[in-house]
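User: Please run a holo structure prediction.
Assistant: Happy to. Please share the sequence and the ligand.
User: Here you go; the ligand is glutamic acid.
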Amino acid sequence: MIRVRFAPSPTGYLHVGGARTALFNFLFARKHGGRFILRIEDTDRERSRKEYEEKIIQDLKWLGLDWDEGPYYQSQRFETYRRYAEKLLSQGKAYYCFCTSEELEAERQKAISEGRPYKYSGKCRSIPPQEARRRVEQGEAASIRFKMDDGEFYYEDLIRGRVEFDLSLFGDFVIMRSNGIPSYNFAVVIDDHEMGITHVIRGEDHISNTPKQIKVYQALGWEPPEFAHLPMVLGPDRSRLSKRHGATAVFQFRQEGFLAEALVNYLALLGWSCGEKEIMSLKEMIDCFHLERVSKAGAVFDHQKLRWVNHRHMESLPPEELARRLKEFASLPHDLEFLTFAVSKLREEAYTLKELKEALERELNYSPGERISPEEVSVVEAFLQELEEGKSVKEALKGASKKTGKRGRELYHPLRVALTGRGSGPDLAFLVELVERGSERGYTLSPAERIRNYLKWLSRA
Ligand code: GLU
């Protein structure tokens, strides 16, 4: 059975690159009836924070990427890593290293000054194991290093095909620090093996770790999983997406008023596509998903495209559902029936829930802004008189038209300006109904109040 995992380190918020990795794992698992596992890689005690972990979990849930197992925590598995490190030591596949950080730093500086890439010299490899053990038992600090091979190496990546390496560039790497904390490259192998992971799907930044990990699998006599490395998410300047390109954290997009399904839809398009079809539900993405169809080329995060995708999802939601989302997003006091009516039209121009909220506020918080000519004022006055005689808006329009002889734009323009404060905006019949419905509920001024306000403002301004 297919088993995949998402393994975030809780050292920051879930960003779009991480969310895309989670999504592709999720899609792959759902497509093949496999299992999707969540593992928190919290071995870095200094940088890991509970707050980040909670946020990551919250964001994954919000995106609808629910997992079948976990979260598992690496911080609760130190004993397991130690056991396997011992095993490698006893088989002579790893060794104790007593080099201090000062010594290692000196090695590194030397390499830099000689212009060659740094790798560990392998100095402690030659210490006889019994002697090394005695020194450790006497309390000397030691890390454990893995004996890395030399020579040519390759593996078959499901996305990138054959990937080749020169192992002589790697050097013996630390699998267990002197404080008993495992390194990423070690813990990840132990966990992926013990958790029965069949496919490791992750960002391309981990390609260079893959040979180290495969070597550890082999040293422990285990079959490595398949690897699939996803292209990087890039900013508009084609450098790796980062904070300086603007919002990158999932929660920021949520705050900006993007719908979870729209963000998920857009993330799916970063490095993958389902033919021409761009707007998809999660179900459609699952049906269409193929790892083999993921591109090798970096994917540019396009904020405008995300807005468009969001707009399309907002347009296709049933209005009641969009109203419910808006109410929750903006903590609005208005009733759902009213909001349903409001969003049915206002969504035409809104690309996010935030813009939808702003559009609603603009219509409800009446404030006069534009002036009209004295001739137009007479139309508005005639209309107001009709309203004050108890006519409905529709009848009042007819009456005003008859009294002033104005029709079409000459009739509607002044009324729009007086009623909404602005010379342009959504369909006037809709706005009038919105104002009527809103004023019945006490959300806004009535049409007559608005016009009186307007005329007062005009005479004062
Ligand atoms: N904790 C690692 C990261 O967040 C996971 C890498 C992997 O998937 O192996 O980058």
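The longest strand covers residues 35-40.
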